[in-house]
Amino acid sequence: FSHPLAVEGHSDEQAIHSEEYATNWDLSAARAISAVRYLVDVGKLDPKLLSVAGYSDTRPIVANDTEENRARNRRVEFVYLREAHAPPRFAPGTPARVLDEAGAFD
Fold it and tell me: Is the pTM here over 0.85, yes or no?
């Protein structure tokens, strides 16, 4: 395994309020982090190739109108990236660069 991998967590749109997760943002990020920890600890993947994102309920694959659909929206996706599309890696102290609407760095 030598290509960058983005691990993306998602939730349904039902609000969550628990001691463990304050919001669906926390929950979706935790899902992705859990998957990455498994890939590193058990799968022995190089953590330098992995990135994590939590999208909350902002990217549903189906309408959140039934329990079955909400369950489908609670997921983790694995996105293999070509090197050219890998997340940028910055040296400590380097200002972040922002992508414009076309996906190019400004």
Answer: no
